[in-house]
Amino acid sequence: MIFDTDSKPEKRKTKVLVVEDSLPAQKILVSIIDSDPNLEVIAVAGSGEDALAKLEEIKPDVITMDVHLPGMDGLAATRKIMEFSPVPIIVVSASTLVTDIERAFELIEAGALTAVAKPINIGTGDFKVSSKLLIQTIKSMANVKVVKRNSRGNLASKTKISHSLEVEPRPLPTNLELIAIGASTGGPKAVQEILSKLSARFPLPVILVQHIAPGFTAGMKEWLSQNLKLKVKIAEEGEKLRKGFLYLSEEDKHITVLNGRLVYSNDATIAGHRPSVARLFQSVAQEYGERSLGIILTGMGVDGAAELLQMKERGATTIAQNAASSVVHGMPGKAIELGAATHVMNLEEIKNGLIELEKRMKSINNTGEREVAKS
After folding, report:
1. Given this structure, which CATH class describes domain 14-141?
2. Is residue 91 a contact partner of residue 104, using CB atoms and an 8 Å limit?
3. Which of 20, 56, 276, 361 gives 203 a disulfide partner, CB atoms 3.0 to 4.6 angstroms apart?
4. Phi and psi for 307 in degrees, rounded to 5?
5. Of 302, 86, 105, which is closest to residue 187 (Cα–Cα)?
6. Where are the domains of the chain?
7. Per-residue pLDDT for the chain (375 aa), expressed as one digit of tens each?
8. Quick check: is 6 catalytic?
9. Of 61, 303, 326, 329, catalytic
10. Domains 14-141 and 178-365 share a fold
11. Annotated catalytic residue: which of 93, 184, 283, 292?
């Protein structure tokens, strides 16, 4: 018997469960996914109930989940899956209506990792782009280690241990004039959590760069508006920064700050991203230095990690999310590795730090106003 000692073991294919009620859409999705030699659709489910039944028999690496399903819809199915048998879930939405995209973010809140547009217009350039993005996203999400969540989408167990780099963590400084946040995979839920208790009169502007698929920004804006007291808006070119606002970037543009205003650019993508966390953090480091707070949250890759270090070197306070509370610890993990974080915290600690910051800044402002009134 002759053995081929030069042969390499065949790479294991990523197994995908497609949850989609439309038969034409099922065929399109299966065709796209199976066209990649490293992916394989092992089952198709036409409803949430069907998906749960199939999960008793098969073990997919990734699930693509439609938002609208007969009977148990995508949201209810996602909640059940993440509560009892967690699997990386990608929301695949055919609609560009803001209300439907907002619904997709409810699935992300329940534990889905991200959302992409459903490739439906065969023969168009958009179909090719969205098909490629779907394949890339499935490959990226397949290796994410998801954990159980309760019926409300919260982690079944939370780490309560402080992960600050300091022996005695100092409160966040009250000289701040701006907060800049960067996030990717798992980011929407993390952002919602850390900002959820801030009031509509929060004494600082907040800018967020969140990696998200094209067409989903408006829906994310509406979803955040429903879940936060802060005023959420997509920034306008040249707009003056205002306290109590959470600013999102327009799609496919870098967002920066200059002289207290928001400025866009169409410069080249950075590590494939536009907007990029890197460009935002660079501009904040230059314009605000020690008067800024930079927060880097869960996400793949390294976008913004080196630039968080630039912020720190210019005197800024910098926070990196800890590994235990991150869906993916790529971006914050790299920032920690570079020594870019003055604090390493879980989401609850970041949230509590911001709550305390608001109280202290308001107390200082009120004291100052009383002193002025006395004089």
Report:
1. alpha beta
2. yes
3. 361
4. -75, -25
5. 105
6. 14-141, 178-365
7. 344 445 555 678 999 999 999 999 999 999 999 999 999 999 999 999 999 999 999 999 999 999 999 999 999 999 999 999 999 999 998 866 777 888 899 999 999 999 999 998 787 778 999 999 999 999 999 989 888 876 555 655 544 444 444 444 678 999 999 999 999 999 999 999 999 999 999 999 999 999 999 889 999 999 999 999 999 999 999 999 999 999 999 999 999 999 999 999 999 999 899 999 999 999 999 999 999 999 999 999 999 999 999 999 999 999 999 999 999 999 999 999 999 999 999 999 999 999 999 999 999 877 655 554 455
8. no
9. 303
10. yes
11. 184
Task: Let me know if 95 is a catalytic residue.
Answer: no
pTM above 0.85, yes or no: yes
Catalytic residue among 163, 211, 273, 329: 211
Residue 17 CA, distance from chain mean position:
23
What does the alpha-carbon distance between residue 209 and residue 180 come to, in Å, rounded to a whole number? 8
Q: What type of residue sits at position 312? A: K
Which CATH code for domain 178-365?
Answer: 3.40.50.180
Alpha carbon distance 309, 330 (integer Å): 15
Q: Are 322 and 290 in contact (CB under 8 A)?
A: no
